[in-house]
Design a protein that fits this description.
alpha+beta; 18 strands
Length: 273
């Protein structure tokens, strides 16, 4: 069972259904949960072969109506969202520099249904989540307001002087250099699948590299090929593929490209490590 699905099930049992009325607001907690996952993915920092550090302090900005509906339960909701982030990080083998916290804040410039997620990496000398005793300065990121759960990747920001990721610059005494490489993966229903080979076959068959349990998906539906640029190729499926809103048999991919097969949406992601 996926991390987001488990989060939804836990949420349903909170406060004997009290949340059911509150969550009729435009912004749904599962949308926020998905945005936090993407915030981790978009701001993951590879320190070495065995350690990828992600933000641990998150601020979710909401419109005034949505904030007023959710703020009375912000403590419990923050705890549940923090637990979801921890579960997702464990699944993706991410690590944190300090304890995970999720805060709700009101933003006067947002309309109902819009939200914005900001994050930063905060070090803590006492947190058991802190990997290897390393120290890091805070790094904040933030994206434009979005609706319906489609949160755009935040604008990249550079860590301030003294932040450990500055080892990328290769300055004397900076320590081991992180591996510079392009990381590629796809996201399906909140689950991340790494692309670690030249081709990745998606389909309903158990022989596919990534199995998609969808009656509208063929046994070997399509194939993602790593190249310059990366591409997706239909493999003679019954229902074809739609890439960024266009029906096609073959298309180039960019970070954030959306591939629809059957009733399933696949998001292609890539980032320089």
């Amino acid at each position: 069972m996926g991390v987001l699905k488990r989060f939804e099930q836990r949420l349903e049992g909170l406060v004997n259904g009290t949340f059911a009325k509150v969550f009729k607001s435009e912004v749904q907690p599962v949308e926020i949960a998905g945005a936090l996952q993407r915030e981790c993915d978009n701001n993951a920092s590879i320190w070495n072969r065995d350690r990828t550090v992600v933000p641990n302090d998150f601020i979710v900005e909401l419109s005034t109506p949505d904030y007023e509906r959710l703020s009375p339960y912000s403590g419990q909701l923050g705890d549940e969202l923090s637990g979801m982030v921890r579960d997702y990080a464990k699944q993706q083998r991410y690590t944190f520099m300090g304890p995970i916290k999720v805060h709700l804040e009101k933003a006067e410039d947002l309309d109902t249904g819009l939200y914005r997620v900001r994050s930063r990496t905060l070090a803590s000398s006492t947190s058991q989540d802190r990997p290897g005793g390393q120290a890091a300065a805070a790094r904040a990121t933030g994206g434009p307001p979005q609706a319906g759960g489609h949160v755009a990747p935040p604008m990249p920001s550079s860590p301030p002087p003294g932040a450990a990721p500055a080892a990328r610059t290769g300055a004397p005494g900076a320590g081991p250099q992180p591996y510079a490489q392009t990381r590629r993966w796809i996201e399906i229903n909140g689950t991340r699948h790494q692309i670690s080979r030249p081709t990745l076959v998606l389909g309903r068959s158990t022989d596919a590299d990534v199995r998609i349990d969808d009656p509208g998906v063929s046994r070997r539906h399509c194939e993602i090929r790593v190249g310059t640029p990366p591409t997706v190729q239909d493999l003679g499926s019954t229902n074809g593929i739609v890439v960024d809103g266009q029906h096609t048999t073959r298309a180039s991919l960019r970070d954030g490209s959306r591939i629809v097969v059957g009733s399933t949406t696949i998001v292609y992601r890539q980032a320089e490590g």
